[in-house]
């Protein structure tokens, strides 16, 4: 699928410029949705023209009318995964072009009135995992675009709660913590290595009764001290090598990650300055000149014995211009990556890095 390659490319570039651990910055916990960024800005790219559209094309691989078709196709493909829902909404004070609305048939459009209405939409779209829009709508806001993928799924093979026990986890600073850690056996097909010293473990979610595939979670463990940008892309690499082991066991800390990320800095670093400036050309969106003044994403990821919960809300606001086969034990007991994928694809829905001592899943805020 073309969108998968575009999302993988965006994810890799994002990790290089924006992930904690890039450059000389220390690695720390984070969770971000590359697919959420691509879907939200892909929908916005459908309203871009001129140099602004060209920049979208360079970053996302799509722009103009082609962006609308790609976003619609991608959202429908992702929603074909059991327990995974993808929703996009647009609220505006400005009249939007009929061609823009028609090009995005799965997007909900409405008038921009009170933020409470959008907050309620966010809660509904994420099943309560995220309670409100991750940014504030102001009197100057003319348009709000929100994309929200959400998943609540059970493992195809759950971890036995009785086997969860305290185990050492060495954080990025070298401090050892005792954290609740889950254990179970894997088949050889669920684990592989990637050149660069990275081990990948895939945990599948249960399929629906009608055979609709479940999502997959890939845990990626690199060499000690390796930064996220050098480890996480192994989750979607096709350079797989089977492990040489008759039995495979895995130890995974129970965890909960939540993060709110300002997207504007990374987007500028990735070349999307035109859309974030008053000179932006969104003439295929509305008559009045508009530009992106804020973009924030909030993500939540819970991993526990019975299953996984994940949600991402990407919010964009616009203003008017002015070889010996030995038993193998894989312990995620130091900083590691987590990648959530749909049931039948390779586009990263969420990428996360657990650097601190994991905290167990918490009820939605």
Account of the protein in words:
This protein is an alpha+beta fold and 365 residues long. The chain is built from eight helices and 17 strands. The chain folds into two domains: 216 residues, Antithrombin, subunit I, domain 2 (Antithrombin, Chain I, domain 2), CATH 3.30.497; 126 residues, Roll (Alpha-1-antitrypsin, domain 1), CATH 2.30.39.10. 22% of the residues lie in helices and 34% in strands. The strands form three sheets. Strands 1-17-16-9-8-7-10 form a seven-stranded antiparallel sheet. It has a six-stranded mixed sheet with strand order 3-2-4-14-13-12, with helices on both faces.
* SS elements, strand count: 17
The DSSP helix count reads 8
Annotated CATH architecture of the largest domain: 2-Layer Sandwich
What is the mean predicted local confidence, pLDDT? 93
Structural class determined from secondary elements: alpha+beta
- The number of domains is 2
Which regions contain 5 or more consecutive residues with pLDDT less than 50?
none
What portion of residues belong to β-strands?
25-35%
What is the CATH level 1 assignment of the largest domain? Alpha Beta
Largest sheet: 7 strands, antiparallel
Spatial arrangement of strands, main beta sheet: 1-17-16-9-8-7-10
The secondary-structure element order is HEHHHEHEHEEEEEEHEEEHEEEEE
> What would you call the shape?
elongated
CATH fold-level label of the largest domain = Antithrombin, Chain I, domain 2
> Distance N terminus to C terminus?
36 Å
Domain Serpin: 15-358
Pfam families: Serpin (PF00079)
Family: Belongs to the serpin family.
Protein name: Serpin family protein
